[in-house]
Design goal:
Blueprint lengths: L4 H14 L13 H9 L4 E5 L3 H6 L3 H6 L4 E5 L9 H14 L6
Parallel strand pairs: 1-2
Length: 105
């Protein structure tokens, strides 16, 4: 089943309203990067492409960099830099979740 990028973009935006983090998962070449770029276009935030050495260098001290960011943060190809993984994100996700208004689930 092929789902158009605009429909997926709306779905992810909706998920981001209720969750501090959303992961785009799928097989190679299925359009994850295109969708991530579409989502980050025109929205305040930061985009890291871990196939780009300059972006990898920016994340050499992950918590120092990530804690100072606000808005949407996209990290494309995150599997290329495992040390930036969940242990660093968990603190940021929890911080984002605690700053959100409590809501019924």
């Amino acid at each position: 089943m092929i789902i158009p990028h605009l429909q997926l973009q709306d779905l992810v935006k909706n998920r981001l309203k209720h969750n501090p983090a959303v992961a785009l998962l799928g097989p190679r070449q299925c359009g994850k990067t295109i969708l991530a770029r579409m989502l980050s276009s025109g929205i305040p935030g930061d985009y890291f492409d871990l196939e780009n050495p300059a972006d990898v260098a920016r994340l050499s001290a992950p918590m120092t960099v990530l804690e100072s960011l606000s808005g949407l943060v996209v990290i494309d190809e995150v599997q290329r830099l495992p040390e930036v993984g969940v242990k660093h994100f968990r603190r940021l996700w929890n911080r984002g979740a605690s700053s959100q208004t409590p809501r019924a689930r």
